[in-house]
Amino acid sequence: MREFKGSINWRVRKANEDFFFVEADLPNNEDEKYYPRLEVMQEDFGDHNGYTYEMRMHDAQLISCAPEMLDMLQNIVDTLESGDTPHVYQIQDLITKATTI
Fold it and tell me: What residues pair up with 51 in beta bridges, in sequence order?
């Protein structure tokens, strides 16, 4: 199985009710020379060409769950290859987490 080489601790951080970031800690976040987080998406107020706040929050939630989803897919493959049955409830819980804001 291939090892994921990207950031694994993605999360949605709400600065207040209207402003959020999708971020992860950098590997060298204790080093004072660097900003401690990587941000890939932020709420910038307003709708842009129909891209609403709600759509951005759903995208943010899905992005923040991507490492867990990859891990779950790898576990499913391992489970199926060993002849066992995947844990459906864990899969359903992760789908709910990734699609609920």
Answer: 48
Using alpha carbons, select from 33, 40, 46, 32 the residue that is nearest to residue 13. Answer: 40
pTM, two decimal places: 0.70
Q: Which residue has the tokens 């049955």?
A: 85
Residue 2 has pLDDT above 80, yes or no: no
Query: Who contacts 101 (Cβ-Cβ below 8 Å, separation ≥6)?
Result: 54, 57, 58, 60, 61
HSE, CB side, 13 Å, CA atoms: give it for residue 40.
18
Place 79 in a pLDDT band, splitting at 50, 70 and 90.
Answer: very high
Strand pairing of 19-25 and 37-42?
Answer: antiparallel
